[in-house]
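Listing S7. Sequence submitted for prediction.
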Amino acid sequence: MTRILLAAVLGGIVSFVWGFASHVILGLGQEAFSGLPNSDAVIASLEGQPEGTYMFPWVEPEVLNDPESAEAVAFTESYLAGPTGMVIYQPTGEDLMGPKKMGTEFGVGVLICALMAFVCCRSRCGFAGRWGLCITMGLISFLAMPVALWNWYRFPADFMIEGAFYDTVLASALAGLVIAAVVRPAEET
C-alpha cells in the first residue's frame, strides 16, 4: 500500500509537471483554439443564459425518436448543411490558473496514478511490462473520451493530437516510468 501511495504522488507530480511543460513551455494544443470573430456579439446573445453546453443546430432529443417527423427531417437537413457547433458557456469568470484549478489538476493526476499503480502492483510483470500497462491505460483513456468527442462533436484533429493525445498518453508514459519503478509485482510485495 505504501508503494502504491508513493507511486501515486510521484506519478502525479510527473504528470503535473508534464502538463505544465506541454502547455506553457511547448504550447501543445494551443493551435487548436483561436479567438471567436465577433465575440462581443456572441457574448451579448448569451447574456442571461445559465451556464451550459449549447449546440447548434438543436432539436430536443425526443424529436429524433420519430425520424420521419417534419421537425426531425428539418433538423437533419440543417445539420447536414451546416454550420454546426458547440459553445461551452460560463456566465461568470474565474482565475485562469488559480489554486483551485491547479489543485484539482494535481489531485486528479494523483488519483489516476494511484489507479495505474494499483493495476501494476496486481500484475506479475517486470518493469517494462508495468510501464507498458501504464501506457496502455493512457491509450485506453484517450480512446474512451477524446476520440468520442472527435467522432460525435467534431473536435478538431489538432486538438485531438496535440491536446488530448499528448496529455493523456505521454503523461501516462512519463508517470508510468515512475510508477513502474516504485511499484513491485504482486509476488514481490
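Caption to Listing S7: primary sequence and predicted C-alpha cells for the chain studied. Residues 11 and 175 are 4 Å apart (CA to CA). The longest strand covers residues 52-56.
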